[in-house]
Amino acid sequence: MTNEVAEKFIEISKDFTWDEFRILTDSYSPQPLPGAVVNKPVEIAGVRCEFIASTAVSQRCPATVPTSPSSLFFHPPPKLIVSWNMQVLFFHGGGFCIGSITSYRFALTFFSKITNLRFLAVEYSLSPESRYPTALNEGLEVLFRPLLLPFFS
Fold it and tell me: Least packed by Cβ within 10 Å: which of 61, 82, 87, 122?
C-alpha cells in the first residue's frame, strides 16, 4: 500500500465506530468459493468457534469438538502415523481490536488444502468492548478446557 493510499484510508476511517471499522475490514477479506470450504460453527467454553477445512480434508476427517486430551489431536485414535487427524487451533490477528473468523476464512481454507489439516478458529471478544484479559482468558479456556475437563468431571 502506498503512503497516499494509507493516508487516505486513515483519513476516511477516523470517523468510523469500531463496529463499522470491523465490517469494513471483513468486507475486504476474500471469501472461499462455494463448495471449497466446509465450516462447522461450535461453541467451546462459551466462546464461538468454527471448524474450517477444505472440502477434501472435511470428507476424510469429520469435525468433532475435542472432549479429551487424545481427541484434541486425533480422531479417530491413530493406528499409523499417516492416519493422524491433527487440528490447528487458530487465533486470528488484529491486535485484539479487529479481525474475525470471517477475515481469515479464505486463508484458513487455503492452508487446510495445502497442509491437509482442519483448523479450529476462535472468535474471541474484542477491545474496546471487552477489556484485557477477556480475550486471553477465552483463548485459554478454549485451549485448556478440553484437556482438563476429563480430569475434573
Answer: 82
